[in-house]
Design a protein that fits this description.
This protein is 46% helix and 12% strand. It is of the alpha/beta class. It holds the Pfam family Abhydrolase_6.
């Protein structure tokens, strides 16, 4: 049986975002970097086609089987939308799931039941998403260049889309419709999944100190739901730290790898 590490990428990136981290997680198992539906090397998603996080999770489960990793333990390393996919996949793995490393999973809809407990910034952002029919429910606007610009600038800073190299913009334009589907998932019923994991699964939750308040609120919610989780703040970084701040991200991922390895070694000795 092969132990494997699923490395799940975020919206508007590709599976290559985790390539620099493969050696960091290798002590846990074989690194696997499947692409979400509609991302290279697959064809872009056709406008009008609906895909959910559950569809992406099912596709990844098939990838495990086809690649010969349908047995053995699975560790999940995921960023942003990849975190939602990983949490949706977790029940399909059952006892094979060994650990989770989640960098700012975007389960925004899960915050609605606790909206009264959020700080003003997080509440305002959640309300803005919920009450904006154009961004989440306008299939003509969704995935357009104007929509993409709004998405990119939210997670980075105003003007980030315009400053992006033209070649990178061209790639992201081909992903626009799938990006829109993913944002709908994190703000819809899909984001209520993943809140019923066994409390024995080691979890590391990571967020950047400069990330939007709504992302910090998701981390806080998960930490409340899973009090055994390790919560780590990367000072001076934002939501895209796995891409923009590789060294500190690699450091916390290495800590997680060592942590899970120790727990696994102890369980083997006690069995």
């Amino acid at each position: 049986m092969h132990a494997s590490v699923l490395m799940l990428h975020s919206t508007a990136t590709t599976a290559d975002m985790w390539a620099p981290y493969e050696s960091t997680v290798a002590p846990l198992g074989v690194p696997l970097r499947p692409a979400h539906i509609g991302y290279p090397p697959d064809r872009p998603l056709m406008r009008g086609q609906v895909v959910t996080a559950a569809d992406d999770a099912t596709a990844i489960a098939r990838h495990l089987a086809v690649s010969g990793h349908d047995a053995g333990t699975v560790d999940i390393v995921a960023h942003s939308y990849g975190g939602l996919v990983g949490l949706t996949l977790a029940p399909l793995l059952g006892t094979r799931l060994r650990s989770l490393f989640l960098f700012e999973p975007t389960l925004f809809a899960s915050l609605r039941p606790v909206i009264d407990t959020l700080d003003d910034e997080a509440r305002a952002t959640l309300d803005a998403f919920s009450n904006d029919p154009q961004f989440l429910r306008d299939d003509q606007f969704g995935g357009s260049e104007a929509w993409i610009e709004r998405f990119i600038d939210f997670w980075n800073r105003p003007g980030s889309w315009q400053r992006m190299p033209p070649a990178q913009q061209a790639v992201i334009r081909t992903l626009g419709w799938k990006m829109y589907q993913e944002v709908r998932s994190v703000n819809g019923p899909d984001a209520l999944e993943g809140l019923g994991l066994p409390h024995t699964v080691p979890i590391t939750l990571v967020y950047g100190s400069r990330t939007p308040a709504i992302a910090r609120a998701v981390i806080a919610l998960l930490a409340t739901r899973y009090p055994h989780a390790r919560v780590i703040t990367l000072e001076g970084t934002g939501h895209m730290a796995p891409v923009t701040h590789m060294e500190p991200t690699r450091d916390v991922l290495a800590e997680h790898t060592a942590y899970v390895s120790r727990i696994h070694a102890l369980s083997l000795r006690s069995s």
